[in-house]
Amino acid sequence: MSKTAAALVMEHIEIAVATLFRSIVAIGVPGERIFVLYVFSTLTIVYVVYRFRKPTVAFLKYCFPKDIYLHPSAKQDYLYYFWMALLKGVLVAVPLAWLGTSIHGIWVEPATLQAGEATDHSFWSILAFSFLLLLAFDFAVFFTHYLQHKVPILWEFHKVHHSAEVLTPLTVFRMSPVDLIVTGAAVVICEAGARALWLMFVGPAPDIFAILGINAGIFLFYLFGYNLRHSHIWLSYPAWLSGHLVSPAMHQIHHSSEVRHWDKNMGLVFSWWDWLFGTLYIPKEKETFKFGIDGHEANPFHASHEMLWKPFIWAWRRISRRVKQVFSVIAACLLCLLGPTQDSAADEGYSPPSLHLEDLTWTEVRKALDAGYTQVIVPSGGTEQNGPHMVLGKHNIVVRYASGALASLLGKTLVAPVVTYVPEGDIDPPTGHMRFPGTLTISEETFEDILVSTAKSLLQHGFTRVYFIGDSGSTQRGQKAAADRMRGGWWSSAPAQVFQISNYYFPETNGQIAKLQEQGFSLEQIGTHAGIRDTSEVMALNADGVRNLTNAVHGVLKTTGETGVIGEPSLASAEIGHTMLDLKVNAALAQIRALPEPGL
C-alpha cells in the first residue's frame, strides 16, 4: 500500500530532525568526519609526528596553537558549523529525501547499502562491489569539486570553503548548502550508476564491507588522518603513494592562495582523478604558503552568516551579466534592422585617447569596454643582453609597438602593459643570457603565474578575449601553459577565452627569414639573436637603442661567446626593420582572425 501524503511529510520531517541532531552530535556519528574514533586516531598520528619531529613546544600547543584555533577565521568555522546544523535539515535532508535515497559522509547516511534481497556472494564479489561503490563515491566528489572550481557560478558558492585563512578540522563543514546539494546529487547519481552497471554485467548486488554502518574503505580513509587535511600539521606521503592517495599535505596545497597551487589536488580519496584531469600536484618537500581566496581578499566574509547569503548575490551578478550579454546581442541585431539611436551611435563611436591601458584612466577603460573594446593584448618582452650594440630593452620596445599596431588593425582592442620580467636562464650558476650583466630573469613558474593573474584580472573587468604575444623565445612556453590553464571547458558559463598568438614570434610562421633570403641575405648573416632582424626592428623604432653598430660588431658571429650576437647586425637598417615589424603584426593578425568566433 502506498504511503499517504501525511505519512510522507512526517517521514521527511523525521529525516530533517535526524539530520539536525546528527550535526549537533557529530562526534558520535561514524559517518561524520569528526566522529570520536577519527579524532582519536588523528591525535595518535599527530603524536607520532610530534615525537618524530621533536618540536620545542609542548604537545598540546603543537596540536592546538592559539594563533590558529583562536584566529578570527577559525571562530567563523565554529559559528558557521552551528548555522549549518540549523539549516541542514531543511536545505539538504529534505530535498535528498524526495530523491528517495541518501549518501555518505557529511550528507545523509544511507538507510541501506544493498539493493534487492540478500543472496550468497563470495568474498571477492563483496570486495569488488564495495570498491566499485567507493570509486563511484570518490569520483562524484572529485568531479563536482572540479566543476565548482571551473564553472564560475558554482565557484561563487565554493568560495565559502576556500575563504578559510587557517585550517581546523571544522573547516570541512565550511561549505555552502549549494555545494552540499550539488555534491550530494552527484553521489546519488554515480552510486546508482555503479549499482546499475553491477546488475547489468554481474547480477544482484551483494552487501558491502561495512564498519559501523559505512563503507569500510571510507571508514579507513577517515580513520587514517583525514582530519589532518584541514589542519596546520604537514603530513605528506612518498611520491609513489601520493600518486594513488591524496595526502593531507596535498589537500592543504589545494587551499593555498598561491597561483601555482590554484585548482590542484581536488580529489578526496584517490589521486587518480587529478592525474586524469591534469590537476595533480605532488609536493617534493614542505612548502610555505598562505590560505584564502586568490591572494587578493583572502576572506571576503566578515561574519559567518555572510557565508550563507553572499554567494547568492555574487552568483546573481554573474547570471545578470550573462543576461545582459544576451540582450546586448539581441539589441545589436535590432539596431542592424532598425538603425542605431543617437545615444547608441555615440557609445559605439567612442574611441579611447590611447589603446594602451597604462595611458588610460579607469573611467576611460570602463567607457571603452562599454563601447565594445573587449579584446586585450598582453605583450611580453624581457630585459636581456642584445650584444654590445643594442639596449637591453629591445624586446620591450618592439613588442609594445607591435601590440599597439595589432590592436589598431583588429579594432576594439586594448593593450596591457608589457610584461618585462621573463625567463632568461638560471641565476646560479648563470645560464643563457644571464651570463651577461644587466639581464634579469624569473622562473618559468613565476612567469606563467604572472600571465594567469593578468588574464584573470582582465577577464574580471569585462574583457572577453585575451591574447598573449611574446617577442622572445623564452616567453613562448609560459604563454602556452598560461593559456592552457585559462582555457575553459564545455561546461563553462563564461564567454572569456585566452589564446597564445605564437605566429607573431616564430620565423616559420611570420615569414621574416624567407623575406630576408629573398633579398639575398644568407642564414648566417640573418642569424638568430641580435642579428639583422631584431637590430633592424629597434633601428626602425628607436634609433638611440642601437649604438656604434659598425665599429662594435661586424662580420658573421656564429656563437654567443663574449658578444652575445648570432648573425651580422651591421647589415641591419630601419627600412628592413619596418618590413620585419609588418610581417610580425600581419602574422599575428591572421592567426587571431582565424580563431573561432567567441560563443555567447
Automatic annotation (TrEMBL):
- What UniProt keywords apply to this chain's record, in alphabetical order? Hydrolase, Membrane, Metal-binding, Transmembrane, Transmembrane helix, Zinc
Report any one BP term from Gene Ontology: riboflavin biosynthetic process
Cofactor(s) recorded for this entry are: Zn(2+)
Residues forming the Fatty acid hydroxylase domain are: 131-279
SUPFAM superfamilies linked: Creatininase
> Which top-rank group of organisms is this from?
Bacteria
Query: Any stretches that span the bilayer, and where are they?
Result: 12-29, 35-52, 78-103, 123-147, 208-228
Record-level Gene Ontology MF annotations: hydrolase activity, acting on carbon-nitrogen (but not peptide) bonds, in linear amides; iron ion binding; oxidoreductase activity
InterPro entries xrefs: Creatininase-like_sf (IPR024087), Creatininase/forma_Hydrolase (IPR003785), Fatty_acid_hydroxylase (IPR006694)
What's the family? Belongs to the creatininase superfamily.
Protein name as annotated: Uncharacterized protein, putative amidase
Per the UniProt record, the lineage of the source organism begins with:
Bacteria, Pseudomonadati, Pseudomonadota, Alphaproteobacteria, Hyphomicrobiales
